[in-house]
Amino acid sequence: MLLALLVGSAQAAVTDVTLDNGLRVIVQEDHRAPVMVSQVWYRAGSMDEFNGTTGVAHVLEHMMFRGTKDVPSGEFSKRIAAAGGRENAFTNRDHTAYFEQMQKDRLPLAMQLEADRMANLVIRDDLFAKEIQVVMEERRLRTDDQPQSVVYERLMATAYQDHPYRRPIIGWMDDLKHMTAQDARDWYARWYAPNNATLVVAGDVKADDVIALARRYFGPIPARPLPERKPQSEPAQIGEKRIAVKVPAKLPYLLMTWHAPVLRDWQQDTTPYALQILAGVLSGNDSARLQSALVKRRQIAVSTSAGYDAVSRGPGMFMVDATPAPGKSAAELEQAIRAELERVRHDGISEAELARVKAQVIASDVYQRDSLFYQAMQLGEYVTAGLPPAALEHRVDKLRKVTAAEVQAAARQWLQDDRLSVAVLDPQPMQAGAHPAAIPGARDVH
């Protein structure tokens, strides 16, 4: 079956094709420089894991560089480097993706190598035993030894009651300690198939040439039956949740998160766009409300930020985090943040604030389009989340149409205490001379 969709102008055309074996191929032509980025996105991330094997999606990402029959361990990266390119991978809650950035005439090499490890990965017990040690060390460095990361991890485990987003992407340490090579083999067999993957290529390429190469290298890989994905709904939160996290740290830290909707029907939904504007009203630069009021004017915080991601396979969260200024408590800071949010809920936002945030969004979109990598990245994120490329193409137009009243309504409806979970870092004494360990072999870029 061949489905093709052309979106936008000739310069920014997006071609979207599905091969007979189910591999989706998306091409973003950009002819400003003779380079390209190739990304293979598997629709399998930490949300697809089971209790007892959390972190296996990320572990498999590591093992994908440990070789096939024809490309032994370490050879993948050497061949890409020898061709003047660079490669890496990343695992998230919704997906795992692998990429190469190279001059345009090296695209066949990138496809050949990716197709080979999509079908022929060899997971040896001895190499797995070494790699799992690398992953555990990575967890110690990036989570266990980072107080704010511990707070985030514990708050997610609290805010989500049932949904797998409550589990950390890198996995619980106990699961990593007991993980086996067979767990990784099972994961690979379950999800690494062309009909569960999307190839995204952006750069100085011709769509027809890319599709022909995709047929040549990926086409012979047969589709496989995929496991049934059962609904994993998160029950509505029915009251505020609150935790204290005691870990060695220099400063207290506050993280607040509210359950919020994400983009499902890109043509009809309005709230996710309003929440993106709201995050921009609250933070992003010195003129934003939290920064202006709490850091500059009242000096009750040394840093604040608000964040919201409208695109994901699972449920969404709107977040605010902050670090109290010296002499101020997390409780004082939380009350100050609540007061700023209440101002939005009660009084709304000004047209000047709305215009400022929209200008920032448009500027950010322009800057991101300047990067081939992020052009491909955005396409991969959208389609893996189940959204069409058209949703990305019209994102800025949708944000332009958001009104101040819609932002106020979104704040009133979603930033309610019954949807709120709060984590407060209670700093414990730090050990003198403690330094994070190195993580040899670490390669992921969360």
Automatic annotation (TrEMBL):
Keywords: Hydrolase, Metal-binding, Metalloprotease, Protease, Zinc
Cofactor: Zn(2+)
PROSITE patterns: INSULINASE
Domain Peptidase M16 N-terminal: 24-170
Domain Peptidase M16 C-terminal: 179-360
Family, as annotated: Belongs to the peptidase M16 family.
Protein name per the record: Pitrilysin family protein
Organism field: Thiobacillus sedimenti
